[in-house]
Amino acid sequence: MAQVVAALSGGVDSSTAAAVLCNQGYEVTGLTLWLMKGKGQCCSEGMVDAARICEQLGISHHVLDSRDVFQENIVDYLVAGYAVGSTPLPCSRCNKAVKFGPMQKYAREQWGISTVATGHYARLDQDPQSGRYRLRRALDLGKDQSYFLYELSQDLLAGSMFPLGNCTKAETRRAAAEYGLATADKPESMDLCLVESHGSMRQFLDQYISPSKGDIVDAQGKILGQHEGVHHYTIGQRKGLGIAAAEPLYVIGLDAGRNRVIVGGRDSAQGSECSVQLVNWVAMAEPSTPIQALVQVRYRSQPTEATIIPLPENRARIVFSEPQFGVTPGQAAVWYQPDPAGDLVLGGGLIEP
Q1: Is 203 within a domain?
Q2: Residue 58 contacts by C-beta under 8 Å, 6 or more apart in sequence?
Q3: Strand order through the sheet with 160-161
Q4: Same domain for 260 and 275?
Q5: Residue 125: how many CB atoms within 10 A of its CB?
Q6: Cα–Cα distances in Å, from 3 out to 107, 112, 142, 245?
Q7: What does DSSP assign to residue 22?
Q8: Which of 147, 165, 170, 335 is most buried per CB count within 10 Å?
Q9: pLDDT in tens, 322-347
Q10: Of residues 22, 91, 94, 167, which has the active-site annotation?
C-alpha cells in the first residue's frame, strides 16, 4: 500500500484531500504545521480541526513545530520588505521554505515517506521526454493556486501531490459533505493567515514598524498630503490616501529613504516592462534566448502576452505587449506557456524595484 503524508491546515480543502487519498487506498499520515507564535487563532483552531479530521478518517495526526521557521522566513521577511517600500509576497515563499521543503524532509526522516499531499488547487504531471515535473493551473481557474507554487523546485515537485487539482470548489464541498467531514461547512479563509490573526495587514505591521509621518507627493515633488508610514502603502493603491483631487490618484512609487509616498494618475501607475530576480524555471530549463509567454503579475490579475529575456545571476527582463497596471516590487511575475490552454507554468520570479 502506497504511503503519503497529508498536510492538514484544518480547512475543508486539505481535509477533503486527505479523505480522497484514504478512499483511494493510500496509507495516510496527517501532518499539521504550527506556524504562529503567541495565540494565533488560525493555527490553534486549525490544529484542533485537523486532529478531528484525522480521528474521523482513522489516521494518525502529528504536529510539526514550525514557529521559528515561519518567524524567520515570513514574519521577518515581510517586515523587512515593507520597511523599505516593497510589498513582499509571503505565500509562495511560505510554500517553499516553510511548508513543502520542511514537510517533505520531516516525512522522509520520520516515516520514510517521500510524498506530501496538500489541498492546493493545482495540477502536476511529468514530461515523458525530459522527465521534468510540470506544474499546471487547476481545473477550477477561480481557485487556481499555481501562481503561489511557482517557486517549488523540481525536487519539491517530485515529492508533491495535489488531489484537488481536477476538482472545482463546489465539488470539494460536496465531497466533504459526502465523507461527513467536520470541516465540510467551515467558512473559507479569505485572507493571509497573518491578516486573519491580527485583524489587518496594517495592524500586523504596526507591531513591528513604528509610525513615521511623511509627505505624500506628486511626481514633481509637490506635497499633497501626509502619511504615517510608507509601509501602509503599495503600488497601485487608490483607497486610503486621504487626498482630494480632480482625478483619481494612485500610489506610483514608495521612497522609503526620504519617507515619501508618490502618487499620480492611473496612467502613471502602468509599466511596460520590469525586471525579476530569484527566477525559478519550472517546466523548462533556463533558455538561452528570449521566449514568449503569458505573464501574471498579481494573483488575481489577468495573464498578458510578454517577452521573457533571461539575464545573468538568475534574473530576467519582462517586456509586456501592453502596459500593465500596478507592477509591484516584491510581488511575483509568473509566466505560463502561451498556448490556448495557457495552464503550464514555465517559470517565475520576484519583481525588482
Answers
A1: no
A2: 22
A3: 61-65, 27-34, 3-7, 116-117, 160-161
A4: no
A5: 14
A6: 10, 9, 31, 61
A7: H
A8: 335
A9: 999 999 999 999 999 998 889 999 99
A10: 94
Question: CB neighbours of 138 closer than 8 A, spacing ≥ 6?
Answer: 121, 122, 123, 144, 145, 146, 162, 164, 165, 166
- Nearest-angstrom CA–CA distance, 339 and 343: 8
Question: How many domains are there within the chain?
Answer: 3
Residue 278 lies in a domain: yes
| Residue in this structure with the C-alpha cell 513615521, named with its chain if needed | 212
Domain assignment of residue 170, yes or no: yes
Which amino acid does the sequence have at 100? F
Q: Are residues 112 and 252 in the same domain?
A: no
Active site residue 43: no
pLDDT digits (tens, 9 = 90+) for 281-306: 999 999 999 999 999 999 989 999 99
Q: Would you call 115 helix, strand, or coil by DSSP?
A: coil
Distance CA(258)–CA(198), nearest Å, equals: 29
Q: Three-state DSSP class for 4?
A: strand
Residue 119 belongs to a domain: yes
**pTM of the prediction?**
0.93
To the query of whether residue 42 is one of the catalytic residues in this protein, the response is no
Tally of CB atoms within 10 A around 154 = 12
Query: What single-letter DSSP state applies at residue 140?
Result: S
Structural domain containing residue 45? 3-197
- 158 with 107, same domain: the answer is yes
User: Which of these is catalytic: 91, 167, 193, 274?
Assistant: 193
